[in-house]
Design goal:
This protein is α+β, with helices and mostly antiparallel strands. The protein has helices at residues 13-24, 65-72, 110-120, 167-184, 188-195, 234-246; strands spanning 28-34, 41-47, 49-50, 56-61, 75-80, 93-103, 133-146, 152-156, 205-210, 213-218, 221-226. The longest helix has 18 residues, at 167-184. InterPro entries: CREG_beta-barrel, Haem_oxidase_HugZ-like_sf, Split_barrel_FMN-bd.
Length: 249
């Protein structure tokens, strides 16, 4: 019997970009953890945001089954990627195996993660500061990308992380950067929505920036755009966004 060809392709830059977008553009995800009582996989749904380096972040109740499981065993998997029309299996999706790291109040990253989470999920303000809620930062360890039939790839966790020395500076100035950009171009989010062929909805707003790209959101819609190269500072991010919005196609 002849050996069957492997369904897994060699991972290239196009696959890495698709994986990053699937993870960073997700507003929610299916999460699978290990039930501490039975050892069986336990799946649930969580709201998703990203830290400044692209690592996924979740906000969960300490009373939930998946939180208790993560505290006992930090291994988890996230499934991101929305099915569209037709066969759901024909659409891209990403399974990311992660190690969950709790981010309690007082943690050095807590305020940054809280701000970025609220930028993406403003309705979470109703409960984000409840004492029984906490954040987990999910460190990607490895991932499996299915880009559609016949397009399977394996990725290292580092493929999904923004490796930039500008991360901390950009995070510290993120709100100021967005304010300055809007001050110069009040219609920038709406123009970006048109340029990026976002769904028809209004109003759009910028809800996240990092050295690798930015997100815009409107209601239940969120669109992620990745820069061609990493931005070196906040001014570079503004320049990149302005060029995308206002340069002649």
């Amino acid at each position: 019997m002849k050996d069957q060809p492997s369904p897994v392709r060699e991972t290239d830059d196009e696959a890495r970009k698709l994986a990053r977008v699937l993870l960073r553009s997700a507003r929610h995800a299916a999460i699978a953890v290990l039930d501490p009582g039975t050892g069986f996989p336990f799946a649930s749904r969580v709201l998703l945001a990203t830290d400044i380096d692209g690592a996924p972040v979740i906000l969960v109740s300490k009373l939930s089954a998946h939180t208790k499981a993560l505290i006992r065993d930090p291994r988890a998997s996230l499934l991101t990627g929305e099915p569209g029309k037709g066969d759901p299996l024909a659409h891209s999706r990403l399974t990311t195996q992660c190690t969950a790291q709790p981010v309690e109040r007082g943690h050095q990253f807590h305020e940054r993660i809280r701000t970025r989470f609220l930028d993406r999920h403003p309705k979470a303000k109703l409960y984000i500061d409840f004492p029984d809620f906490l954040f987990f930062r999910l460190k990607p360890e490895q991932a499996s990308l299915n880009g559609g039939f016949g397009r399977a790839y394996y990725l290292d966790g580092r493929d999904l992380i923004i490796q930039s020395p500008a991360n901390e500076e950009v995070a510290a100035k993120a709100a100021e950067t967005v304010r300055d950009l809007i001050g110069r171009h009040p219609d920038v989010a709406e123009v970006l929505a048109v340029r990026l062929k976002a769904p028809e909805s209004a109003p759009w707003r910028i809800c996240g920036i990092d050295p690798a790209g930015f997100e815009i959101t409107s209601g239940d819609f969120l669109v992620r755009h990745e820069f061609e190269t990493l931005a070196v500072d906040s001014d570079h991010i503004c320049s990149n966004i302005s060029k995308i919005a206002y340069s002649i196609p």
